[in-house]
Design a protein that fits this description.
Number of strands: 8
Order of helices and strands: HHEEEEEHHEEE
Radius of gyration: 16 Å
Largest sheet: 8 strands, antiparallel
Strand content: 25-35%
């Protein structure tokens, strides 16, 4: 495990993402602590003028109030709201200004399972508690106010695994529209045989406006 989390995350997200598999993210709140062992992540690189432009990234078209945290420094949460109902969480990585990160897609609750169950009453089995990015954020009670939170052991603690996971699988990212969701960007990484890994779904075509 690296002594300096920020230094460990100061790398290309395509390299960081597979190394995050098996890492444990803990959120300690007034309700108690919940910990999730990460089993699925996606890497997102930078804006269109960066060394590694990524058309699937929130930062691709430049800096905005929404994606400000993505621009660094590493070692913080980038939290965004999607579909008008869900929060999703990313680990910011790469040097400041690179606007890159890793989406936390799924994991296994390894501590605080009763608390996680109370937050996810619709889950039919424990493997579903954090299966998918919105569910993971809900199980960990991650919301808008956690955008920019440090992962150094305060309210949030990210513990990298002691060794890199073996047999990591990769493929296109889930639900990313346009070229960023193609097989040219196989930056979704997951642990084989894990029931908490979410199902792959390509982006739904968007209807074209009438002329």
């Amino acid at each position: 495990m690296p002594d300096d989390l920020a230094a460990w995350l100061l790398r290309d997200p395509v390299l960081v993402a597979p190394d995050l598999l098996g890492a444990v993210l803990t959120h300690t709140s007034a309700e108690g602590a919940v910990s999730v062992r990460l089993t699925e992540v996606e890497a997102y690189r930078g804006h269109r003028d960066s060394e590694h432009p990524d058309p699937g990234s929130h930062s691709y078209n430049g800096r905005t109030p929404r994606n400000e945290v993505m621009w660094g420094p590493p070692g913080h949460l980038y939290v965004y709201f999607t579909y008008g109902m869900h929060f999703c969480a990313n680990v910011v990585c790469g040097p400041a200004g690179s606007s890159s990160g890793c989406l936390l897609r799924a994991g296994e609750v390894v501590e605080g399972i009763e608390l996680a169950r109370s937050r996810r009453p619709a889950a039919k089995r424990d493997a579903d508690l954090a299966r998918g990015p919105a569910r993971l954020a809900q199980a960990l009670a991650i919301g808008r106010g956690d955008n920019g939170a440090a992962l150094d052991g305060g309210r949030f603690r990210l513990e990298p695994p002691s060794h890199r996971a073996a047999g990591v699988l990769s493929g296109p990212r889930v639900g990313v529209a346009g070229p960023g969701g193609s097989a040219d960007y196989p930056w979704r990484f997951w642990l084989p045989g894990e029931p908490s890994v979410s199902a792959y779904r390509p982006a739904k075509p968007r209807p074209r406006p009438h002329a």
